[in-house]
Design goal:
Blueprint lengths: L6 H11 L1 H14 L1 H6 L5 E12 L4 E12 L2 H69 L5 H35 L23 H11 L1 H21 L6 E11 L27 E8 L5 H70 L5 H36 L20
Antiparallel strand pairs: 1-2, 2-3, 3-4
Helix pairs in contact: 1-4, 2-4, 4-5, 4-7, 4-9, 6-8, 7-8, 8-9
Length: 427
């Protein structure tokens, strides 16, 4: 593991080890094995007949018959069945891709949750040190009777709350690290290195471009399109229900010759001529042909109606999901724009003003011109704005991860080229 792994490193580890992806890959391989099964001919049939009472023929007695036959469906049926199986395999591939993009989004969310907790810890520790300095100032003024004891007690109470908050943040950080380890199929107690602070990033996404990208890249939509294709092929397959299947075969019958008929001859008379042909007993061969008779039209018509209704359902699901994906992209895009505006206001106005207000209040308090409650209120406002900035940064990164999940590909926040299969949003 690198000293300070990036979010991309955690994503790579999760994609390589997560058991859900391994299971989805196994499902894809299983679906692929269906194709040769449905496109091959059915097993030939071997038939044997043993007759306790033989069939008597002029050539001899038939005690045993052995036959083999092969059913040959209409080749178009096999082709369509193979197409249906291939569509189901492609659906499994898109399901795998869907799990991949969801896993990527989950890893990014867990990563940025750890980032937020670490920044909150840093701010809490900084403010604890700041309050410790303020405690010394208040204690000095209290000793010379310039402030009331309640000011000192208020500072000490705030310090106790900050120490308690630090402990709770450490516990929450351990839980967030366990969540990230789970996504990498690792023990929950394994260490996750410290995440360094990042600069605030901004993007200008084109929502129409994102929706167009999702139309071609979102795995959920691709899976539903394959489902529609499969159901259309099922209709074609059902339409062939009136076409019979042909069965060809060959049979061999063992013929045992029997003795020729010899009439009784009186003593001293001449023996008459005897026909010896029945003693040869030549075996019997036959070619067979049979086919099923698809005469039960209610069953065939019901199968056709079922296939058509399934197609209507799949087309409805596809259309509804297209609308839902477009809405979710627009909703995430709106959140990103709001978060970017909030971050700009915090960084450029609120935080600098709150810091300056606190510093002025501290100077005024040291001079005895401001009460302690005003000083603490100004400090808390500054602390809240600092925490809000990091929360908005993490919400921005989380929303960007959701945007990638909806689009169905990894996006970048700069104008650099990306590997094949990824998209770019220019800064």
């Amino acid at each position: 593991m690198p000293p300070q792994p990036s979010v991309e490193w955690y994503i790579g580890e999760s994609l390589a080890t997560h058991p859900a992806l391994q299971a989805a890959m196994a499902d894809v391989r299983a679906k692929l094995e269906r194709i040769p099964q449905v496109t091959s001919l059915p097993d030939p049939m071997l038939r044997s007949i043993v007759r306790p009472e033989p069939i008597q023929t002029a050539a001899g007695d038939i005690f045993f018959t052995l036959g083999v036959s092969q059913t040959i469906p209409l080749l178009t049926k096999l082709e369509l069945a193979g197409n249906v199986a291939a569509s189901e395999a492609r659906m499994a591939v898109e399901q795998l891709n869907h799990k991949r993009v969801r896993l990527i989004a989950d890893v990014e969310k867990a990563y940025w949750q750890i980032y937020l907790l670490e920044r909150s810890l840093e701010i809490t520790e900084q403010n604890r040190r700041l309050l410790q300095d303020l405690e010394r100032v208040v204690d000095t003024r209290y000793r010379v009777n310039q402030v009331a004891q309640q000011d000192l007690l208020r500072v000490q109470t705030e310090l106790s709350e900050l120490r308690d908050q630090e402990n709770r943040l450490h516990l929450r950080r351990a839980a967030a690290a366990a969540a990230l380890n789970q996504l990498m199929d690792r023990a929950p107690q394994q260490s996750i290195p410290h995440i360094a602070p990042i600069d605030t990033q901004t993007i200008e996404p084109d929502v129409d471009q994102l929706i167009a990208l999702a139309s071609g890249s979102n795995p959920e939509l691709a899976m539903l399109r394959e489902q529609v294709r499969r159901d259309r092929q099922q209709i074609e397959l059902a339409d062939l229900g009136y076409w019979p299947d042909l069965t060809l075969g060959v049979e061999w019958s063992y013929v045992r010759g029997r003795g020729a008929f010899e009439p009784d001859v009186p003593a001293g008379a001449m023996d008459p001529p005897v026909n010896r042909s029945s003693e040869q007993g030549d075996d019997n061969w036959a070619l067979t042909m049979q086919m099923n008779l698809p005469i039960w039209s209610p069953r065939i018509e019901a199968r056709k109606r079922e296939a058509r209704q399934r197609l209507l359902a799949s087309e409805g699901d596809l259309h509804a999901t297209q609308n839902l994906v477009a809405f979710r992209i627009f909703e995430v895009w709106s959140r990103i724009e709001t978060q970017q505006h909030t971050l700009d206001v915090l960084n450029e106005e609120l935080i600098p003003q709150a810091r300056q207000t606190y510093e002025v209040a501290l100077t005024s308090y040291q001079a005895g011109n401001t009460d302690f409650l005003t000083l603490i209120d100004n400090w808390r406002r500054w602390l809240n704005f600092e925490l809000m900035r990091h929360r908005e940064t993490v919400d921005f990164q989380t929303a960007f991860a959701e945007l990638q999940r909806e689009v169905g590909m990894q996006l970048t926040m700069d104008g650099d080229s990306t590997p094949e299969g990824e998209g770019t949003i220019n800064e």
